[in-house]
Input
Amino acid sequence: MRTPQPIPRDASQQARDAWATATSAPVTTEPASPPQQPNRSEKASRLGCVALEKSYRKGDLVIPVLRGVDLEVTSGEFLSVSGQSGSGKSTLLHVLGLLDAPNVGEVHCDGRRIDNLTEPKRDELRNQNFGFIFQSYHLLPELTLLENVVAPLAIRFSTLRWWSQRKAIHERASEIIEKVGLGHRIKHRPSELSGGEMQRAAIARALIGQPRVLLADEPTGNLDSATGQEIMALLASLNEVQQLTIIMVTHDERIACQAHRIVRLAEGRVETVNQAA
Amino acid sequence: MYKLQLCLRYLRTRWIAMASIVSVMLGVATMIVVNSVMAGFATEMRERIHGILADIVVETHTLDGDPDAAARMQEIQEVAGNYVEAMTATVEVYGMISFKYRGQVITRPVTLIGIDPETKGAVSPLVTNLTSFTSGRRMGLALEDDANIGCRVAGVLSGSSADTGGIHAGDRITGCNGTAVQDTRELASRLKNAVDQKAIELDIIRDGQPLTLELPVPRPTWNLTADAREHRRAIIELERRRLEWNQPQDIVPAGGTQAAPQPTPPDLNTPPGSQPSPLTPPPSFETIPPPARDFSTPGTPAPLGSDVADLSDPLPARVYLGAGLIEFPIEDKKTGEIRIERMVLSGEDVRITTVSAGRPPEPRHFTATVVDVFKSGMSEYDSNLVFCNLEELQQTRGMIDPSTGDRAVTSIQVKLKNFEDAETVVERLRAAFPAHIYSVRTWQQKQGPLLAAVELETGILNILLFLIITVAGFGILAIFYMIVVEKTRDIGILKALGASRRGIMSIFLGYGLALGVVGSGVGVLLGLVFVHYINQIEDGITWMLGRKVFDETIYYFPEIPTAVNPLTVGWVALGAIAIAVLASILPARRAAKLHPVQALRYE
Output
């Protein structure tokens, strides 16, 4: 659907294509488990959360960050979450991406609750369904650009599988790197790249695992406006061409309005929801 | 997959990790070197002790000995005959030896052991400790070091085994039993290991042609070597001339031993001339009161200078002297070189004092000709033992029953076909021989405290050295903790990409394992190379410091002995790897427990 390239798929990955795998116990035993349970919503809802609450503890002080957030993202949507610093938008992203667990509330995926899965399951789900992009790129400094890009697949596959499929993986990685415009930088270390290049590399890394949802945390925050615009264009085209669901967190209004829908957070609550022009 | 990749990448890019590798490596290398050298020394020492003692020794508590040796040996044969390969009867008794050296009389306490070289040689390697064998002189070889060609045959005695073997003067010896030798010292240490065989093979180069010749090894005897005989003849001749020169001025004191027509030589090293029947025992010496006995053998002495050939005949009593009794190192004032000064040479005579058997013990004196010098490398033995011909010692001490002719002995040494049977044989012998008269022990039991001390020493050293590796382990722990802190953000990234707790943990455990494997691998290699070249390294250090680190005149080893035990090496390497992995568990757990969001925020 998204990519025409024949990326090798193992059983668990096939299972991943059916979103329901999230809760099915041993993933590999149930290839393409079918049942979509539309018990929550009639819409083709992909990812959502209900009454999310999250607070951090600083000594005896409890700092609430999210105070009941409901959000739903449909497949192929480009959603931006904006708000002041401390409004909880990054935390919301982390909770949606299973990097963090909510205190109260649920995260759903295709109608299945995913926030209460066991840790290995959540790790697996994160690896297969979410692609992360961060403000400060977060590339691994020891690895070359290519190695950084293939890292999610390296995590997904066992050494044996990796070796048997490394050619196909590398081909696919090169293709994606080419697509984000870094074909000439393939052997370089992150320290040798510019900020824009690093963010493109991070996007390539997020894409290699064929995720359902791209979670971008201030992807343009460290870039000048021109480079930021290039990154936005890249994200927009990914959303358009590949129908990739994108949730982007930003505090920059101009960046935020390039999404289909803008969710404004304030004090840990959803303030307004705007349909972008 | 990423685990392996990151492990290797961190290994390559973290210089601080090299510190851990080096510390593990040094610990492992030190342990291997120390263990090898200790094992080498211990093995060498055990061999030397074993070489002097037999597998099992049956001893009487009393110095009078067992009156009938033949009967005891028969008994041993009956009790444990099928285990026994060879037996020899010996007499062990305390004594003193005195000899003249540069005008002074030197007296030393010794243990006098009467042996029969033939049977003693069958029980334990005897000839390997006799310098006439290890120097090649017994085989009729005169060797010298040539600066250009190495070990050269200076001369061959006609009729000797070297002559029979086909060695010519001027040949260059390049190998012994297949091992290459460079100089005479090296050849001596090779011969030491070879002369207990029936024959040795020498590789030689004659007129540019390599040849391999086989030399029969003569059996140990109480005979003088040709050059010792020559030396003896020379000193006796010299003494004879000196006496002749002094004859007119000589005032013959009345009575005493001087009254004898043959004057007692002032030099103990110059015995009287030959006697007509040297091996005839003095008649009924038991009846002669000790003070009346002359140091020289009774009998009608031949007039001095009567027959030159007879002059070089040794006395009936003959000894192998421990090298430590008659040798000391001398430093040459000019060159600073240390050479060995020998106070008594083969062919000269020494005086021996011991006690007689029977009640009350009485001092007995006799003069004996030094036939050979005994050098086992155990200073305890070399500076204490004097081997004497059994019959003479038995006779002098009155251990031969005049009526029956039975000869008494104090100990019987037994060699077993298989030393593993020692326990069984000892048990059987203990049952057969009453404990209040005899003690039955293996050589290990006899030297128990010494061997136990060496073992204890090795054990303690190993514990201490393993602590060094443990210290290296703590170094790894500290360094890993640092790396985990430094890599906090990366750990967060990996978690965001879907790495599991176990995956993160195994990165660092694998990292520790890799450090351990590389460190102990290089350490094992380094240790083995060090052990292999330890003598060259010692030479280098000696050259740098300008003084000997390993003085062979003290240790008697031509080179540092080493023995690499593969099992020990394996355990050391495994232990080091285990410590490296154990040390990385704590940092790895910390890394695994990091919260991904907090790790990502970490700057």
Remarks:
- The helical segments of chain A are 11-17, 89-96, 119-129, 145-156, 159-179, 195-208, 225-242, 253-256.
- The first strand of chain A starts at residue 45 and ends at 58.
- Strands of chain A lie at 45-58, 61-74, 78-83, 104-109, 112-113, 130-133, 213-217, 245-250, 261-266, 269-275.
